[in-house]
Amino acid sequence: MPLIGVPHKRVEDPRLITGRGRYTDDVRLPGMLHAAILRSPRAHARIEAIDVAAARSAAGVVAVYTGRDIAGKVGPIPTAWLPPDSDIKATAHPALATDTVRYAGDGVALVVAESAAAARDALDLIRVSYEPLPAVVEQADAMREGAPLVHADAPGNIAFHWKAGQVSDAVFSGAEVVVRHTFRQQRLIPNPMEPRAAVAQYDRATGDLTLWATSQNPHIHRVLLSGVLGIPEHRLRVVSVDVGGGFGAKIACYPDEALTAFAAMSLGRPVKWTETRTEHFLATTHGRDMVIDVELAGRREGTLEAIRVRNIANMGAYLSTAAPGVPTILFGLIVTGAYTFEHAAVDVYGIFTNTTPTDAYRGAGRPEATYLVERMVDLFAREIGMDPIEVRRKNLVRPEAFPYPSALGLSYDSGNYQRALEQALATVDYLGLRREQAALRGHGRYIGIGCSSYVEISGLGPSEVAGAVGFQGGLWESANIRVHPSGKVTVFTGGSPHGQGEETTFAQIVADRFGIPIADVEVVHGDTARIAMGWGTYGSRTTAVGGSAIAVAADRVIDKGRKIAAHMLEAAEDDVEFAQGTYQVRGAPERSETFQAVTLQAYLAWNLPEGLEPSLEAAAYYNPSNFTFPFGTHVAVVEVDPETGDVKLLRYVAVDDCGTVINPMIAEGQVHGGIVQGIGQALWEGAIYSAEGQLLTGSLLDYPMPKARFFPTFETAFTETPAPHNPLGAKGIGETGTIAATPAIINAVVDALQPFGVGDLAMPLWPERVLQAIEAGRDGR
Amino acid sequence: MREGWEPLKITVNGVQHALSVEPRALLSEYLREELGLTGTHVGCDTSQCGACTVLLDGKAVKSCTVLAVQAEGSEVTTVEGIGSVDDLHAVQAAFWDRHGLQCGFCTPGVMMAAIGLLQERPHPTEEEIRAGLDGVICRCTGYQNIVRAVQDAAGRLAAEQDRAVGD
Ligand code: FES
Ligand code: FES
User: Fold this and answer.
1) A-chain residues within 8 Å CB-CB of B128?
2) b/e A608-631 (16+ beta carbons within 10 angstroms → b)
3) CA distances (Å), A389 to each of A179, A402, A426, A634, A759, in order?
């Protein structure tokens, strides 16, 4: 029975719905101590003195460490993405500040105590005298002449300057239509529901350190932490099996995990650290925060010709692990979106400020790029008086153009962008909605229709390209398939799912290929002691890259089994075919052996073909030849109340194409979650700093998270255009919703408010902002 | 008994416990740290996320909003107490069937909130479900499959009740 495309129930769920998951904070070990970290309340200050005496002598406190105490023992946290030719100032982040704190939340001291409460209490007993320094929060201010410097060696607070593509001024001066606009991508707080946590256990006799950690990529954490802590890599084991969401925030290597490990090593007892939610707001990376200037040139009849983008990205106080790759490669190379621009150029500045470091947040660069191009298409349409859908129809890359070489040097793999667009429009009844809109306007009601036709880069990615763009790692993925003597199977993957359900989809891939029940397949992930190497889960890469590795390894198992079966059946290897779990001599169904019988023979080795080794196991290290390019069209229908500024979501239609769908139930769930996060950015979410660098939206009380009652039922569908260059045809679905939803919503609201002359709105669309825009439009301002 | 700690008698998932607790310990901390019932999750420190929701004397309550000592003499049901892998509660079965969870971190709390909701409204509309889940945050699912799961669970519970009446 084929298992690809089947909505199989998730195999990871039984433990999770019965409360038997084992998240990092659930780990409890005999003699375990608890750590808490004192964080700077100031955004920028010199540390004059730290007095830890009272804390050290407090009840239950075992140890207190400052930056000086750990000097030479815990190294600074490095940056692992260094875009070339960008003059990058990758100032490593000290695990605890010694002289200067550079953002509110920067770690200053570590307390270890017998209980979490005692550790937290002792934080209040530490006296730090700070000499305040002027802080800078906004990237524009940070670039100003005479602005306070976050790092002395980064003049102008420029962390890096990266460029791609070229458009001559003549293209713009000679263009029929030029539209210019500035967009603000507000800062977001990732907020996976599981806070970050770490538990470290050190065996002094062997020198083995085990670290349970909330990680999307435990092998990357192992290699980075081995350097930070000076532990040989083979002595460090990182375990991240049940992880409660990541959304990019659990990619980075943070000081906190390193400090926890250090404490366990120094004290010879296990140590646990778990951030509070309020701490998460300060100490875990943020997302977005870019100011983006765009110029678009086109022709009056609707053809898009050129796009020029300048992005000023707020990197926070340090360059987090993957951060420099976000506004550059992951943003810059896809600003042309799904359209046939002839010319494109991107100019990106990464700017240091006295704020929490930013890094990947669901979509990482691609939502920001999609936002600008989808908004610009609408602004251009308005400028030339054309329906924005018509502009899309005219300019989307055509199906026969694939592989399509984009103006910025990518090769879009496959697609039928028109099909997704037309299907989404048919689902909402676009023309009917336009009529309804006109009719309702007559009654003082304002509905709007917003479209977003996106393409994203995912399935990260070819390792050669990773190297060329400065990612300090590979982007291939590993798979190891071990068939046990009874024919049951364990699959080891280097992917590290944390909600995406690959224990199920990967079991489906293997069970489908082997013709065995899903229940016979176990998928192991998230443990560096069980999996030799892996690059982890981000960039919608796990099914496309990790799944492909599994498919290749499975085929290797089948090929070895064929040799054994042929020998058992006394047939030529080429005459033996494998289908539905059975090796069979072509044309002779009575001459067959089951997968299980062949496996058993592989282990017994009583009668193997000459020269063939016993056992049945295969590994594959799959290095993709290209990125994958999922695409689709989302349409939002909203109603805006011009009296209150409230935006009501009436309908939301998503047609996504992530190539071959392995499990449509899981894929649909990814779309739902992504849409909600994308709408969250459009309508509610936004981090706000005071001018002094205090995070004003520093808890769930002040930072609005999307709730169930904010949404209608989404209407989702898939088209399937397989990726031509991987064995599964899968492209990736983890981020599409977030990428597509934000501009669809803003386009819809701006469309609704067209009668008021509203051309753009700043996100998030808090009602007072919408009202202001309406009033400004009414006054003709 | 440790100094300053208070005795506490409490029934959790049908088992009586007599332990001492720090007076400031939250019920969520007591369940996780003292009883090792780590299915009750802690996702925040401002009582917003609902991951810690349990049944306290039959009512869905955020266990981080209750001091353990306030639960003296009470009956508490956590996710570990509603069903097991072999014998799932209707809500658990529905969350599994309808893909009502992704990372699973919010899930125990969301399911306990759903049980509370269905006790008050056995046949809720979609709108009532969405409103009834206002006390919980899920960052993964976009809520749609949680809503489907709660609808499905309502049907299962009604069917169970019919069967019970029929018996
Ligand atoms: S832990 Fe968040 S509401 Fe209780
Ligand atoms: S399933 Fe991850 S937070 Fe709800």
Assistant:
1) none
2) beeeeeeebbbebbbbbebbbbbb
3) 18, 22, 12, 12, 17
8 Å CB contact of B96 and A17:
yes
Count of CB contacts below 8 A, A vs B? 184
Give the pLDDT confidence score for residue A613 in this predicted structure: 97
Q: What is the CATH number of the domain that holds B26?
A: 3.10.20.30
Q: What is the pLDDT of residues A644-653, one digit of tens each?
A: 999 999 999 9
Q: Is the residue at B69 inside a domain? A: yes
d(CA A719, nearest CA chain B) in Å:
21
Distance CA A660, CA A503 (A): 18
Q: Is B125 on the interface with A (CB under 8 A)?
A: no
Please name each of the domains of chain A with its CATH number: 417-458+627-781 (3.30.365.10), 476-622 (3.30.365.10)
Please answer whether residues A383 and A179 qualify as being in contact, where contact means their C-beta atoms are separated by less than 8 angstroms.
yes
- For residue range A266-317, what is the model confidence (pLDDT) as tens digits? 999 999 999 999 999 999 999 999 999 999 999 999 999 999 999 999 999 9
Give pLDDT, residue A523: 98
- Per residue in B35-85, pLDDT (tens digit) is 999 999 999 999 999 999 999 999 999 999 999 999 999 999 999 999 999
Sort out which chain A residues have CB atoms less than 8 A from B108's CB and list them: 17, 19
Q: Is B55 in the pocket of ligand 2 (CB under 6 A)?
A: no
Q: What's the pLDDT at B4?
A: 86
**One domain for residues B94 and B122:** yes
Domain that holds residue B101: 90-166
- Do B49 and B71 share a structural domain? yes
- Mean pLDDT rounded to a whole number for chain A: 97
Gap between the Cα atoms of B81 and B98, Å rounded: 21
Give chain B's domain count. Answer: 2
What span, in angstroms and rounded, lies between the C-alpha atoms of A259 and A108? 11
B84 assigned to some structural domain: no
Phi, psi for A666 (deg, rounded to 5): -70, -40
In terms of DSSP bridges, do strands B6-12 and B75-77 run parallel, antiparallel, or are they unpaired? parallel
B108: domain CATH number is 1.10.150.120
DSSP one-letter code for B64: G
Distance CA A758, CA A378 (A): 13
Task: Answer yes or no: do B115 and B65 share one domain.
Answer: no
> Is B128 part of any domain?
yes
B1 falls in which pLDDT band (50, 70, 90)?
low
Specify whether B72 is located in the same domain as B95: no
Rounded distance between C-alpha atoms, residue A108 and residue A55, angstroms: 14
Q: What is the pLDDT of residue A781?
A: 52
Q: How many CA atoms lie within 13 A of B47 on its CB side?
A: 9
Parts of chain A with a pLDDT under 70: 780-781
Yes or no, beta carbons of A19 and B144 under 8 Å apart: no
Which amino acid belongs to residue A436?
E
Q: Give the H or E element holding residue A273.
A: strand A271-274
Distance CA A388, CA A397 (A): 16
**Whole-number Å distance between alpha carbons of A541 and A535:** 10
Do the domain assignments include residue B32? yes
